[in-house]
Write a structure and sequence with these properties.
single chain; two-stranded parallel sheet; elongated
């Protein structure tokens, strides 16, 4: 029987050696069976020398970082096209960083967005990098997702701010403005139908979710890059932090823009401040709501200076100070006001004009109307809802309280149920469906101003053997978008309004008009001229010795027209044939005629109610 040497084991896959060749445990050192001498005489095979064991390293063993395998991607495209994959990875990283910086740096106003606004160093980016570098892997990714989603929310909020500033000349209010989004949906429904509204809502939701997801992914991408290149990222963050401190301290600027900025942090700080003020506004307003100088005045002592008069409070949509002061519009508006003055004087009327400061600009007419009539500063939807569900008396409801007037509302802009109408003390309300109009809409405007005033004459003012009337009239032809616009025709030709189909067809296209800010201002000016002409011609045609007209703008137009002006002044005018009516306001210092002087008194709109009630009360005049 031959003795076979057991095969030698190869080194383990992990680099360790097999059994020590010097270890004879379990292996015979010499043959025990001598019967097979031939076999025993055969020379023993010589085993190869065992490799020398590696020397122990003299220092600590450096850590071995596992190489993360490249993900193959869909259909393995990364392995098939490695260069393309590298380019995509680099581009994705650059885009993720650009997105984060853009959200941090972009202003919340369109007119502030310039190239220089993006060539700045935001301290928030340095802070985010430091936070992500300080966290362990799992916490870093979770934090990146949360921070990315937060950046996405702030990006959406900035976009809302841009839209609101373009329309209302103010940022989006996180406490009060959510209801306006519903109003916007209603506008889309009225313009494009129910299907258009649903598509718009779905599109907005999808876009908002996409912004949040992309922002979160961008932040995760940046966190991964920082982790993979940690030494370089730490040094870079420290260098940028020191550079920011130096530049901020010295006040380094490029192109007039501060290089080291903390604008995003300041933006969030202001937002928190506005939210706190908004949450506390309800308590402040409730205290103001209880203060009414005329609440306990007997009805027979109210508005005694106007007994027997027909009083019309008329709002001209978007009739703001810009129409009178802007040099590109002033000559035509001035000519219209002079023609109106001449028209009224020929009919025996006189007038006085001043300025009121509206609580809103660009839109929000109902807030201005309620401010004027309630004597309270109604600057947001919460205040509007609070006052319209309270027992606070308005200028119009005081007329109703006396029992000496029939109170009516001509509101052509109202196209659905208006429960707030009862609050204003109106015995009867004529909305757009009850004026007898069978003609077309003019964009947003359901009924042209001339027809609305003629309908008031037929339905109320022209009736014989009636009681005096107090009317709240809200003209709508000068409502945005001011295209197409109706124009004056012979009053006898108004009929049921179908004549306006031809006029609309001859008008401008709003899509074309709004491609040019200059054209928008031109059409706005024409709309204001039409409203003024409608009103002064009505007074000339139907007014008499007992007619008293108070007309005013509700707010300034959108910033496209005003050029971003923060001024909120609107003209206000009192017209009457009876000189005793104007004598009672002679101490107001208002300008004679329809055009208020530049230095005419300027009041807050909420002050008008009490001043008017006082002037035409027992102690007035």
């Amino acid at each position: 029987m031959s003795h076979l040497t057991p095969p030698r084991q190869l080194p383990d896959a992990d680099g360790g050696d097999g059994p020590d060749p010097g270890d004879t445990e379990g292996v015979d050192a010499e043959p025990r069976d001598t019967e097979d001498t031939e076999s025993s005489a055969a020379p023993e095979p010589v085993e190869p020398a065992a490799p020398a064991e590696p020397a122990e390293p003299s220092g600590p063993t450096p850590p071995v970082h596992p190489v993360r395998p490249t993900r193959p991607g869909w259909f393995g495209w990364r392995r098939k096209y490695p260069r393309v994959a590298t380019g995509v990875r680099i581009c994705t990283t650059v885009l993720a960083g650009a997105l984060v910086l853009a959200v941090l740096l972009v202003p919340n106003r369109l007119d502030w967005i310039t190239v220089q606004s993006f060539l700045r160093l935001p301290v928030e980016a340095i802070f985010l990098a430091a936070v992500l570098l300080a966290l362990p892997s799992k916490a870093r990714r979770i934090t990146a997702v949360v921070l990315g989603a937060f950046l996405g929310l702030s990006a959406i909020l900035k976009c809302l701010d841009m839209g609101f500033r373009q329309t209302l000349a103010r940022p989006f209010d996180l406490v009060f403005d959510w209801v306006l989004l519903s109003d916007g949906a209603d506008w889309v429904k009225d313009s494009f139908g129910r299907s258009g509204e649903l598509l718009a809502i779905i599109g907005v939701i999808v876009l908002a979710v996409a912004v949040l997801v992309v922002s979160a992914l961008a932040m995760v991408r940046m966190a991964d890059v920082l982790a993979r290149h940690r030494p370089v990222a730490v040094r870079t963050t420290l260098v940028l932090g020191v550079a920011w401190i130096i530049c901020f301290t010295v006040g380094v600027q490029f192109g007039g823009v501060t290089f080291a900025t903390k604008g995003y942090a300041q933006y969030l700080t202001n937002r928190v401040k506005y939210v706190r003020e908004g949450l506390g506004d309800a308590d402040v307003f409730k205290k103001q709501l209880d203060v009414d100088a005329f609440a306990n005045t007997p009805s027979d002592q109210l508005l005694t200076g106007l007994r027997g008069k027909d009083v019309m409070f008329t709002f001209i949509e978007s009739y703001g100070r810009v129409a009178i002061d802007d040099p590109t519009m002033a000559p035509e508006i001035d000519a219209t006001l002079k023609a109106g003055d001449a028209r009224l004087k020929a009919a025996g009327f006189a007038s006085r004009s001043g300025w009121l400061r509206s609580p809103v600009t660009g839109a929000g007419s109902w807030l201005a109307h309620s401010t004027f009539l309630s004597g309270l500063w109604i600057k947001n939807q919460q205040r509007y809802r609070t006052v319209t569900t309270s027992d606070r008396a308005t200028l119009t409801s005081y007329f109703q309280k006396t029992g000496a007037w029939r109170t009516v509302g001509i509101v052509p802009g109202v196209r659905k149920a208006w429960p707030e109408g009862k609050y204003f003390g109106l015995d009867h309300i004529y909305d757009s469906t009850h004026l007898g109009y069978q003609g077309p809409y003019f964009s947003w405007t359901p009924v042209p101003d001339q027809f609305s005033l003629e309908a008031f004459q037929k339905l109320e003012h022209g009736k014989k053997n009636r009681n005096p009337i107090m009317a709240e009239i809200i003209l709508a032809s000068s409502h945005n978008p001011w295209s197409p616009i109706a124009h004056m025709i012979d009053w006898k030709d108004l009929g049921d309004g179908k004549v306006f189909y031809k006029i609309k067809k001859e008008g401008t296209n709003p899509t074309q008009v709004w491609k040019s800010a200059k054209r928008v201002r031109t059409e706005y000016r024409k709309a204001i001229q039409y409203s003024l002409d409608s009103l002064t011609e009505w007074m000339q045609r139907y007014g008499d010795k007992n007619t008293v007209l108070v007309f005013l703008g509700d707010h300034q137009p959108v910033p496209t027209v005003t050029g971003g002006s923060a001024n909120r002044d609107v003209p206000v005018t009192i017209v009457a044939r009876d000189p005793k009516v104007l004598d009672r306001v002679s101490d107001w210092g208002w300008t004679e005629g329809l055009k208020p002087a530049a230095n005419a008194p300027e009041w807050s709109m909420n002050q008008f109610r009490d001043r008017f009630m006082t002037a035409y009360g027992p102690q007035g005049g």
